[in-house]
What we know:
The longest helix has 23 residues, at 73-95. It contains four helices and two strands. It is mainly alpha-helical. It has a single domain (21-95), classed as 3-Layer(aba) Sandwich (Rossmann fold), CATH 3.40.50. It has a two-stranded parallel sheet. The termini are far apart. Helix 3 (45-54) links the parallel strand 1 (33-37) and strand 2 (59-63).
Amino acid sequence: xxxxxxxxxxxxxxxxxxxMRAAAAAIKGCSVLTLHGASDCTxxxxxxxxxxxxxxxxxxxxxxxxxHTFTVQAHAEEMMERAVRFIVDTTDxxxx
Length: 96
């Protein structure tokens, strides 16, 4: 097996070994926005909902019809607009 493929396989195995629920629950003291595509076939939108429920004070924004990489321009624009709004709102809140 080529070294590059082996590296990708090892990376994937390492990621699968992570307890994402525990990792999400450990996030504290910061603002978190989860952006998720409703039609994501890579990571279920239910996982996004679960993470949002586990991370205290987090927000979840689901983009209807969007896939994992927001390949449709309108979906990408909605995702970016929501991310920018979150950053601005969070920054405004911190500066008050």
